[in-house]
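Let's practice the habit of predicting before peeking. Look at the sequence and jot down your guess about where helices and strands might fall. Then scroll down.
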Amino acid sequence: MTSLETRDLTIRFGGHVAVNRVSCTFRPGELTAIVGPNGAGKTTYFNLISGQLRPTDGSILFDGADITQLTAPLRTRAGLGRAFQLTNLFPNLSVEENVRLAVQSAHGVHYDMLRPWMTRRDLIARADAILDEVALGGRRNVAATALSHGDQRKLEVALMMALKPKVFMFDEPTAGMSIDEVPVVLNLIAKLKQDSSKIILLVEHKMDVVRSLADRIIVLHNGQLVADGKPAEVIASPIVQEAYLGIAPGKSAA
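Done guessing? Here is the structure:
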C-alpha cells in the first residue's frame, strides 16, 4: 500500500523558518487539503515533498523509502505527480503529442525506425483515452499554446495521469480559472478520488472547493502544523476560523 510521510520536516531561509518540524502521514484513498493564510508555508511544504526544495532538517518517506535527497525528476519516476505550479507543457506541440510523450515516458518507450507501428498506435490510443477523460478529446490536434488557461490546466492533469503517479499533488488548481472552467477541473479531481490506491494532496485557498473535495484538512500557520482532522471539525474550530482562515467566531466559512 502506498504511503507518504514527512517527519519533523523543516526548512530555513537565513533566519526565517518557513516550514517548522511538520510531521504528517498521508494515506491512500484520502484527499488531504492543506490550508492556511498567505505565507503559512503551504507551497514551501509542497516544494519540499516534490523535490523542488531540500529541507534543512527532517525527512520524507515514500513507500517506506527515504526520498529526502532524491531530485524532483527521480521523485516523479518513483510516483509523485505534481500539477499547476510547474508546467511541463510543450507549447508548440499539439495537445495529443504532449500527452503521448508523457505516456511514452511512463512506459520507457524510445522510438526508432525498426519499432512496429503497433507500439505507436497503442501510445496514441492511450493518450486519446486520457484526453477524453479530461474533456479535451475535441482539442487533441490544437497546439498547447492555443489553449485557454482552463484547458491548459486540464492538459496538465492529463500529463500527470499519463505518468500514472501514486500521489497526485495539486497546488491551487482553480487559480485564474473562469467560473465555467472550475467545475470541470473539480470533477476531474473528484474522479481521481475514486481510486482508493492513490494519495491526493491539495493546496487551496477557496474553502468551498476544500469542503467539496477534502476528506481531511491540515492547517499550516507560520510554518507549523496547527490543526489536522475532518473538514467539519477543522473548519468549525474557533481558533482556526479566527486566526488562520480570517473568519470571526460565530460566522460560517465562506
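How did you do? Strands lie at 4-13, 16-26, 30-35, 57-62, 65-66, 80-83, 167-171, 199-203, 216-221, 224-229.
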